Each structure stands twice: as structure tokens, then as C-alpha cells.
Amino acid sequence: MPKNQEHTKLYLSEGVKLLYNNALPGILITFITSSTLAFSFLNSGNLFTKLTWWGLMMVVLIIRIIDTQLWVNADPVRKGDISWIVRFSSGCLVTATLWSAYILCFYHTFSTEEFTAAIVILSAMAGGATSVLSGNLMLSSLYNIIILLPMSVLLIFQPEQYRVNLGFLGVCFTLTMIISSMKAARYIKEAILLRYRNQTLLERMEKTIKRRTQEVYEISHIDALTGLYNRVSFLSAAEEISNRYKNNREKGFSIFFIDLDGFKNINDTLGHDIGDMVLISLSARLNDFYRQGNLICRWGGDEFIYLTTETDRHLTWQLAENMVTSLSRPILLDDQTITLGATIGIAVCPEHDTSITRLIQLADIAMFSQKGKYPERVAFYNHELEESLRRKITLNEALRYALDRNEFRAVYQPIVDGNGEIVSFEALLRWHFQGRDISPAEFIPLMEQSGRIVQIGNWIMEEACRILSEMLKLKSGISMCVNISIIQFYDKEFVDNVNNLIDRYAIPPHLLHLEVTESIIHSEQHTIYHKVSQLQKRGVKFSVDDFGTGYSSLSVIHNMNIDFIKIDRSFINNIENKGRTIVQAVKDISESLDFDVIAEGVETEKQAAILKQCGVHFMQGYYFSRPLEQGAALHILAAGQQLSPAH
Predict the structure, then answer these.
(1) Domain 400-639 is of which CATH architecture?
(2) Which of 74, 72, 125, 83 is nearest to 103 (CA)?
């Protein structure tokens, strides 16, 4: 289509839309003004003729409203047809003719007021039409001529000079409105053309973008770094294998989710360039396992997916083990030797699921469950793994709001001396969630992994200090033990928080005992030593919990000036056999290194008796008392009750 014809069609289409979109406000104004003019100046001499004129105007307006509604409901493709402009123009011009007829028919009966009102209304209607009808220059011009020119000519031939002047003024006003209509129409055309050009440009840009996107998609099936399939291409190829299974052309397939162990440390310490070289080397090793029909993909970062059409559990296990062995071999890069490990989770179709995305998710769950376990580095998915992971996610999310919902509480387990007298309490954290108590062994590791242990640790520290201040009113010299996670030591405000609580609750510092596990010995000792030393200078005591279960270093304990050692309950449970020898050895060492010994997990009278024979300084366990709620702990102290081993 020639460009001029295309523009003409565009102007027509957009002009029709502009006219009909402005139709209802114009019709409403015409109804109001015509009704006002007709009924404001009724009298017995013109009653019938004015009502007839008004009735004709109403019929025309109703027809125009119906026509407008038909246009609104019309097929969008046909809304720009020329038939609509003919219909709309006819309605407008008939309306204008009726306005002109009003002047011609009733002019000889006009009072000064009606004459003035008619002049003002028709002039306003003409002025409004200049903008409302600007979508069609011909219509706008004819409307102004019909509505203004007859009245102007009539006035020119009147005997009164002022009416003649008004007539000439009307002619000039008509010409002015026509010129204004031409300018408005030109502006509308330019606006329509500009929008059309912008729309055309946008469409071209969209087409270009789609074409370029398609080109990128076509060349993006291979991971640029490793040369393996990328995620998009893998999923596409895997769906084809899945469809073959659904059409009984494959007996099934297995998905391996492979994660490199320790790769983040390579990036952090040696840099991303070395990390990329490691990925290239390990990808080449994975490629050695490629067989016809199998797929290998770099899923992202240091994660890979391997799809094999093998479903035999023994064979797939052996294949995964061979992969782990291959990926764990040292990598020689220039003068460096780098050794990583790998963990693999396996999901099998149809045993576990048939959906590709679901199988990948299940293999990922199996891998995650096995992460960090030695020497088993391969795991098949099972339902229990997913339930465990789902529970962890649920609990982890709930921990975000547990403090705000007051779901935590502190309980206090007594620690007694050889005579059964309470000398201390250990503050223990309890979490009541959805009507059940969650085991600390389950939620504390989650808090440590997420870092929430810092906030919640501060909360229980304050609770313990607050209760200790109340306990000291009942029994002087009573102390409070609070467990501290290694993560809390890395909090910059840890020492200040402890000191502030000591000051706020007026606690003698030596009565606050902080318990740490043996993991503190293998941490950044300089940082830990410094903070421990700061608190020890204040008078705070320190104890090592679960002693004997890790890789304790007595020299480090001595250097840190630890005040108490808690012998782990596993030795107490075995105290009637070899456990007694270990307990006695720890007690003897305590005399030379000047620390006291606490036996935890004492549950029987015989255990308590043997510990007393060994000279253990303090004991703690269910045999003496379970952890007590705040009120019960205060009550025991207030009553001066003794918890005797003979109890």
C-alpha cells in the first residue's frame, strides 16, 4: 500500500476513535444546554413549537447515543470503517441544524435575555466543537458554519446597529473557528502520525529483539566455560528422553546431582581464574563418563547433572562412586596441586518420579543430605530425606519469628556439689512450636547455620542474668551457666553485651559462667582468646562442655585458663566400665591444671556414688533434677531444698 494511502487510512481510523470517544460528553452538554434554552423561555405563544423543537433534539441525541454504543461494542478491526464517520457526521450536522433552526424559528419572539442566552450558548457550542470534532476537519468546519453563519447573516440584516455589528462579529468568529479547526486537525494528524511512527519503530525493535534472542538461544546450548550442556539445552534434551520413556522406548533413566566439595574456598583463596580452570579440568573428567544416550550438564556454579539411561541400582551406584573417585584426584595447575571432593545424589525414573524437574529436585535433596558425610559420598533419594529437609526448611522459617511470638523460654537445671547442695544452675533454651517442644539438638544447629543464634543467644543470656539476679536474693553465691555458640564469639558486640547485662542486673561477674564446646579450640584462637580474656578480666568464669567427645587439647584449655570441665554424659553412662578410668584421669588432671570437674548426665544412684568416690567436684543430671521452669527453680532456692545423691 502506498504511504499516502496508508496515512489516509490511519487518519480516518484514528479520527473515528477520537470522535466517538468524545461523543458522550458532547451529547450530554447538548442535552443540558438545549433543555435550559427551551424551558427557560417558554410562554403560551411558543409552547408547542419549542417543545416540538426540544423533542426533535432529544430524538437526535438518543439516536446518537445508540450509535455511540454500537461503535463501542463493534469489532475492533471494523471500528475505523468510513461508515462510522458518515453516521457520526450525520448526527452532528443534524444537531447543528437544529441549533440553527432554533435561532431562525424563534428569533422574532426573543426577549433580550433569550437573545443573549442563545448567542452565548451557540458561541460556546461552536468553540467546543473546534476541539471535540478536531478528529475530522470537514465535520468541524461544517458544524461551525451551520451553527454560526445563519444566525450571523440574520443579524446583519436587522435594523439595529448593534445587531448588525454582532452579525459581522459572528461571521468573523465563524472564520476564526474554521481556522482553529484547521490548526487543531493538523495537530491531531501530526500526533497520530508520530504515534504511528513510534508504534512502527517499537514493532521493528520487538522483531529485532526476537530475532536476536532467537539467535542467542540457538548458539547458547553449550556452557561457554566447560563445553558441557547448559541448563536450558539439558532440560530440552532430557525431556526428549522422558518422552521416550513415556512412549515405552526407554525402560527409565537416572539423574545424578553432582556438587563439588570445597570449591568455594578455591574461588575465595586462589581467585576465580583458578576456579574456572578447576571447573574446566573437572568437566573434562566428567566427560570421560559420557556414553551414547547420556547427558552431562553444568547446572550452575560448581553443580553438575548427569543423566544416564541405566536404572540398575548397583550399576548406578558404582558409576557414581567412580565419578567421585575421578573428581577427587589431585588437579595439577602450573605449580599448584588442588584436591577437591564431590557429593552425588541420585534419583531414578520411574522408581522415584517421572518428571525431569522433580527428579532433579529429588537428586538435589539426596545430595544435600549426604553433603559433608565421609566416606559415603553417594546417596539415593528416599522419602525420609525429603521429609527431613522439608522439616528443616519449616523450622528454619519458623525460627525467624519465634522470638516475636514468644515461643522460646528458658529452663534451669540444678548443678550440685558432693553433698547435694545446689551451687549453680544451667540455663537451657526450649522452643515450643505448633503445640510441641522441639529438641534443642534439632533447632540449635539450624540457628547456628542461619546466624540467628546471635540474636536468640543474646535473649537467653539476658533471661539467665535476670533470673540470676532474683536467685541471688534467695541464696548468695549461687551461679548461672549459659551456653555460648562459637558463632556468638564472632559478633562484634558480644563482649559489650555481656558486660552491659552484668551491670544492668548488678551480678557479681564471677557468678556468671559461660559454657563453650570443644569446637572453640579449633577456631580462630587469637580472636577467641582475646574475647575470653576480656571477660575473664571482668571476672566471668568459663567452662568446656561435652569434654572428651572431640579433639580436646589440654594445653589450649590451660592457656585459656578454663575454670570448669564438663565430662560428657557418654562417659558417665559407661562409668561402671572404662568410663570410670577416664573420669578419674580427668579428675587427676584437674588438680594439676587447676580446674573443677562437673559430671553431666547423672541418672542413677550408682553413677552418683562412683562419681563421689572419684572426687568429682560437681554433678548434674536427671537423678538430681530435670530442668526446672523459672518458678520451680526459684521455689527450690527459697525452700533451701537439698538434692542429695541418696535421693
Answers:
(1) Alpha-Beta Barrel (3.20)
(2) 125
